[in-house]
Amino acid sequence: MRPIIKTREQIEGIRKAARLASIVLDEVSFLVKPGVSTEEINNFIHEFIVKNGAIPAPLNYKGYPKACCISVNDVICHGIPSPDVILKKGDILNIDVTVILDGFFGDTSRMFYVGCLEDVSLEARKLVESTEMAMFEGIKAVREGAYLNDIGVAIESYILSTKTGFQIVREFTGHGVGIKFHEPPQVHHFNTGKSGIKLEAGMTITIEPMINVGSWKSRLDPDGWTARTVDGSLSAQWEHTVLVTGFGYEILSIS
Ligand code: MF3
Ligand code: CO
Ligand code: CO
Question: How remote is the CA of residue 118 from the centroid of ligand 2, in Å?
C-alpha cells in the first residue's frame, strides 16, 4: 500500500489534531507526581480530549481499553493505565496521546520524570535525553526526496555516537498517520539496510524511537498490550507527527 499524499485541507486538519495532542501533554504534566495512578492521568486526558471536541484514538482501537498509553520504567510502549500503577519518585514514564479531531489523527508522546530531577538516576536521565535527541536526528533526516531508511540511519548513528550501549527497539515502528491511526509506511528507527520509499511532500508520518538501556528485545504482558524489556532495563520513547515538505519537514505536534 502506497502512503497517502495529503491535500492542503487534510494537512490543516492533521495539524490541528496534532497540536491538540501536544496541548494535552502540556496540560497533563501537573498530574505527574508521586502517588498519582496512571488511571487518574488517563481519566484527565480522556476528559480533556472530549472537552476539546475530539476523540481519544486508542480507546477501543483493536480492543485497547483506555484513552492513552502510559509506559512506566521498563515498559517500552502500550502500557495500559491502571489504578494499580502508582507513580513514585524517580520513575520515568512516557505518555502517548493520539486524538481524532474532525476526523483527522494527531499522535505524539513525551517522557516525564516523577519527583525532582535529582530523584531520577543519571542513567535514566541519559536515556531520556538521548532518546529525545535520537528522535530529532530522525526528524532532521526528513525532506522531500530523502529515503525512508535515512531516518533509521540517522537515529542509529546518533545512538551509536553516544557510546552508551543503549539499544534501539526493533519490533515497534513509526507510521504514516493522519487519515487513519496507522497508515503505511512503517518507519523503522534503525538502519534496515534497504533504502525504502522516497519521501514526498504531503506525507505525514510519526517518528517515535523506543530506546532501552539493555537489550532491545521485548515481551508482552498477559494483557496482550504492555510491552516490556526482556531484561527489566529502562526504556524511553518520544514521538512527533511530522509533515514532509519540499523545504524539509514541519513538526505538526507542537503547541
Ligand atoms: N499511539 C501509539 C503509536 O504511537 C499507538 C497506540 S495503539 C493503542 O502508534 F492501541 F495501544 F493505543
Ligand atoms: Co505513533
Ligand atoms: Co503514539
Answer: 30
